[in-house]
Amino acid sequence: MTGPTSGTRPDEIRRHNRTALLRRLHVDGPSTRASLAAELGLNRSTIKALVDGLAEAGVVAERVPALRSGAGRPSLLVLPQPHAAVVIAIDVRVEHVAMAFVGLGGEILGRDSWNLHRTRDPGEVITHIVESARLMADDLDVTAVGVGVSVPGVVRHSDGHVHEAPNLHWTGVALGRRLEAVLKLPVQVGNDAELGALAEHVRGAAQESSDMVYISADVGVGGGVILSGQPLRGSGGYVGELGHMVVNPRGLRCYCGCDGCWETEVGEPALCRALGLPDDAPRGTVVAALRALEDPSVLDEFAGWLSLGLANIVNVLGPELVVLGDLYTALPASVVDSVSAAVQRRSLVSRAVGGTQVVTSPLGRDAKLVGAAELAFEPVLDAL
Questions:
Q1: pLDDT for residue 204 is more than 80
Q2: In the predicted model, is pLDDT for residue 74 greater than 80?
Q3: Residue 112, SS3 per DSSP
Q4: C-alpha span between 346 and 109 (Å, rounded)
Q5: d(CA 261, CA 202)
Q6: For residue 119, is pLDDT > 80?
Q7: Counting Cβ atoms within 10 Å, is residue 372 exposed (0-12), middle (13-18) or buried (19+)?
Q8: Which of 319, 349, 324 is nearest to 339 (CA)?
Q9: Helix (H) / strand (E) containing 135
Q10: All residues at 6 or more sequence positions from 313 whose CB lies less than 8 Å from its CB, including other chains
């Protein structure tokens, strides 16, 4: 671990160390002082001072481990206190909204969700979010310190402006600023696939990977990228529209105006067609059909387009891991294995790095909600 540079003021060093300690506890959970000192590269007296200060502020607590080994005085575990810092995580999807209050350490303290049906007006969605947030805060007896929002669209990271969310029929929605005005809290807004990648990197399949790509399939297809351990957000925060990479110029017209975008071949409607279902079949019906599938070969063409797009992505970005999220988590294991093998076979970069792995997300439908919480926690950990 690289520490603060020489010449840094003592108070800045303390702040840096305090934030590093909090992030370690928030992400990886309880640990002893000795382990924290070793992992963070700090001496024991520094760790003691930091832990004592955080304990006095009620941010952490120390406890004797439930399982003890050996003689002598046991090493106390340092535990993050969930109620010391609580954020609101919101996942806006095409058909429904999910919300959770999440405490320090990633503990979900309470949940709510509701269907959007045909009502996707931004003002109505914001009103419902605010009303639900207030009711949940009262029920849980907590006060939130920040908000993270996941949106399926092109989002400006600096202020949460939704440039375009086609499947929601949103254009030019100042979502971040509008929510801040009514919730009176700092609001961070991100593209849904970007936040799925963040969730997988922090708490999912990619915790040990510094270079990974997350691909999600809902109504559309989106992608989030982690390179060298950091989210790739691009100019202005606009990045991740991997579903609009053209793979079949003679294919179907996409809502973006192009013909044969990747998501027209591997999005939810395409999967429905491969399964012999109507394009607008309910999500539960699609998942049930995938779970009951006896002959995975009916997905061969679908899997071919999926592996083609992934091979292109791997060639451009060179990740060591690709995580498939949302609807893709219901794909039969044999299909995922065949896609992974095809990517390794078709991608020069995959072969060069020893084989890029393709796996499904262990976080499932919660990935973007978890990512929204982590986005909200980024400034909070610095301020605690």
A1: yes
A2: no
A3: strand
A4: 45
A5: 30
A6: no
A7: buried
A8: 324
A9: helix 122-140
A10: 213, 215, 223, 242, 245, 319, 322
Please give the helix or strand (H or E) that residue 136 lies within, else none.
helix 122-140
Burial class (CB in 10 A: 0-12, 13-18, 19+), 2: exposed
The predicted pLDDT at position 100 comes to 98
Type of residue at 89: A
DSSP string covering 164-176: EEGGGTEEEE-HH
Query: What is the pLDDT at residue 257?
Result: 86
Question: Distance between CA 212 and CA 214 in Å, rounded?
Answer: 7
Q: How many residues does the chain have?
A: 384
> CA end-to-end span of the chain, whole Å?
22
Q: What is the pLDDT of residues 343-370, one digit of tens each?
A: 999 999 999 888 999 999 999 899 999 9
In this prediction, residue 1 carries a pLDDT of 45
Residue 318 token pair = 């060179």
| Chain centre distance of CA 308 | 24
Task: Provide the pairing of β-strand 161-165 with 154-156.
Answer: antiparallel
Cα separation, 222 vs 28, whole angstroms: 28
Please report how the helices 10-28 and 367-383 are oriented relative to each other, as an axis angle in degrees rounded to 10: 160
Query: In whole angstroms, what is the distance from residue 178 CA to residue 173 CA?
Result: 9
CB of 275 closer than 8 Å to CB of 269: no
- Which pTM value belongs to this model? 0.91
Q: Determine the 3-state secondary structure of 218 from DSSP.
A: coil
Report which of 297, 298, 277, 295 is spatially closest to residue 286, judged by C-alpha positions: 277
Which whole number is the average pLDDT over 252-260? Answer: 89
Q: Which of 178, 188, 187 is nearest to 231 (CA)?
A: 188
Q: Which long-range contacts (CB under 8 A, 24 or more apart) does 56-61 make?
A: 57/84, 57/384, 58/84, 59/22, 59/84, 59/85, 59/104, 59/384, 60/25, 60/84
For the ranges 274-278, 319-323, 336-340, 380-384, the lowest mean pLDDT is seen at 380-384
> Which residue's entry shows tokens 């095409």?
94
pLDDT computed for residue 134 by the predictor: 97
| Whether the predicted pLDDT of 237 surpasses 90 | no
Residue 68: per-residue pLDDT: 60
Mean pLDDT of the chain: 92
In terms of Cα–Cα distance, which of 86, 150, 97, 158 is closest to 127? 97
